[in-house]
Amino acid sequence: MAVIETQGFKLDNSGKRIVVDPVTRIEGHLRVEVNVDDKNVIRNAVSTGTMWRGLEVILKGRDPRDAWAFVERICGVCTGVHALTSVRTVEDALKIKIPDNANIIRNLMHATLYAQDHLVHFYHLHALDWVDVVSALKADPKKTSELAQSISSWPLSSPGYFRDLQARLAKFVESGQLGPFRNGYWGHPAYKLPAEANLMAVAHYLEALDFQKEIVKIQTVFGGKNPHPNWLVGGVPCSINLDATGAVGAINMERLNLVSKIIDDTIDFIDKVYVPDLLAIASFYKDWAAIGGGLASQNLLAYGEFPDIANDDSNNSLLMPRGAIVGGNLKEVQPVDLKDTAQIQEFVTHSWYRYGDESKGLHPFDGVTEPNFALGAATKGSKTAIDSLDESAKYSWIKSPRWRGQPMEVGPLARYVIGYAMGRPEFKEPVDKVLKTLDVPLTALFSTLGRTAARGLECSWAAHRMRHFFDKLMANLKAGNFATANVELWEPRSWPAQAQGAGYCEAPRGALGHWIRIKDTKIDNYQCVVPTTWNAGPRDAKNQIGAYEAALLNTPMAKPDQPLEILRTLHSFDPCLACATHVISPAGEELTRVTVR
Amino acid sequence: MSETFYDVMRRQGITRRSYLKFCSLTAASLGLSPLMAPRIAQALETKPRTPVLWLHGLECTCCTESFIRSAHPLAKDVVLSMVSLDYDDTIMAAAGHQAEAAMQQVITDYKGNYILAVEGNPPLGEDGMYCMPGGRPFVEKLKHAARDAKAIIAWGSCASWGCVQAARPNPTTAVPIDKVITDKPIVKVPGCPPIAEVMTAVITYVALFDRIPELDRQGRPKMFYSQRVHDKCYRRPHFDAGQFVEKWDDEGAKAGWCLYKVGCKGPTTYNACSTTRWNDGVSFPIGSGHGCIGCSEDGFWDKGSFYDRLSGIKGFGIEANADQIGLAVLGVTGAAVAAHAAVSAIKRGAGGGKGESAPSERQEG
What we know:
The structure holds two protein chains of two kinds. By secondary structure, chain A is of the alpha+beta class.
């Protein structure tokens, strides 16, 4: 291949090819192939979604009120986000207004997910990219204690605490059964933390694993279980009963107190453990503020989230604003409309699907998803044993969405930069503070480190918003407003013969949209365009690259056979592949089967 | 040297005395003679942790997410102390070749002595390439890992039944794992996802007792899946009394009445939700006002709307009566006693168990 130039990047696949498959510590199945030059710098990147499940056609002909449960199962990590988007989509199509309490409870449940999901991502999916577990064995527990106490008032910080943990870790390592730490990249030269910081981080890895399960209990209170709580078109399923007979069977004072306590504990953990750890670890990896930027300095998209006014998705209501930044122009945040067929389109030129005309994209209202698993001539291996892919042909189960023809990055960084560009102080002030603390310029945001830092800030933001939503709920209850569901249009016989609508969401990983067409009370068409589709999608008809591929370019690798640097940048996006690859042919035809032996 | 289960328990502050007591209780709970307790103790003292390979097919990772919510034991204690979770793409440090090598090392070094846990399922369409980790069909990876496993656990409704991707028209031809692993017993732990503490209980049971739990005819552990959600539901008295939620957020909903008429599938769903409950016992779907959607049942996606009453289920012919009783109760409070009697009589009449959608053994009539 000749060198391809696109969006200010150069793609050169002439160097040594490295394949990482499976990419681990993500949701779902992702493969990445890169070419490195003779100095081990990445010069070409190929992102491939390696699974495909199919949910949209499964929805066809079903009751729109059931759709949330199906699409919720697109993803169990960002559990609930598709369900929330779905009930919004159906309500938009049928013009159902939800009560204020339902809006508040949904916001509270969604902020709960942000807090838990970001926390788990940082410690359990991302931290091992930066933290050398084995190095923690060399730490001085007393110095570890001093380090911990210098950055936070979190009480679990005594020398004895860290000494005990280190002893247990030593015994674990000596057992020779390393479990999930087996074959890790321990001792890799790209690990820069002192042993004490590693020990502290290992302690918090374990504490966060214990604590995250507490946060989600808020979803359990209102939704009955987690993962996959229950939702309802027209409101929320839980009723509120503070005074009367049967209050023990509904949301009552005891339940509200449980929620309130969890909110306090969540704010405490995130502000005293997660955020200080993030800043401490980042201070040793400032070189990563200049690596992995990709599209972040160019194109960013957010649909907005947390409507503070029920049934109002304007930026007056959305606590996290909606908008698009194109070409790195922070002076102009462009308006975004999910129903404008000229704005959001999906391409399949390099995806394993077939369009009549693959030079054009399709808006989700008119989406077509017909599978076409075909490999390019330069593929190495066979159809069922692929050694390396041919990116000049089709190479992913993910489509390529574009906004007004542009590839966009979505996620916490996009949300923060858009909020920052709009001058909203709750985004601008913490960003400026972090930049000052780390002594890096604004452009440092557009990097692997910037993405990871934005997620941490957002986690804290979400935890504090949980308190805001809870206080609003209590104010309503004090004023005697207990309504949680609007059933006026619950019965399908009250619906029009045909309707269509769109629902928005900012999932923890970025902009999420659903589109529905309802005909004779059943789903006629259902489409989802999800965050990881935006970020992980392959090239489009013009060979424009998506966010993952762009972000990996020009990254130097210390040891190409140990892909730590690739993992750092990919994990900074928090990949969620089940979300990205849920689509399916409208015909749903059965293809070749493998023989069951 | 390898750490044994006994070491782990001692390390966690369990005294020798408590440990032996644990072994006695274990023997008793298994229905074994007290003479077996020393043998259990000895087995646990000398055993290295059992390696676990946790594979992911077509799935949404909700099973893993549920697992890490376990309150007792804590997920960290299971994966770091009770078993050795040597392969799980969702949490393992290694990626790519190093990850695949970890799996192969376990298969080689612990041949016939590791547990295979499967989340999700294999699609058979497109030569298996709808799920192609490592550039190969997942179904091949699954069969390879199954060949030398000593026990296999099917996590969740995907691995057990097929779940959402296998709902009509099942476009990828996703199949439960027992369609491709046919020569080994499989412990099915269905649910979307299963309850966290049920998952950790099953895996610790297999690791500690070195055997699979007693299963029903569908392969589910009897200890958690032999009773219907309805059988132990705290709202059951309202069902018996004919007190039903008629519309969302009505007076019945506020009073915590039965959700049968807004579609609850508790009467046909075998799971431990109403007893073990969710997230350290905080609640369960019915407890938070939504009916059970039957997520641990085979084919639950294709049994009509989640808001349809169970009228279509054969052998569950109380629908008309439930309506009448509900109306009567709304009209005259004093009718409740008579209504209870009426429902009870109907229940006895329908109690033969024939035509139940789930063929498990019934624990009560």
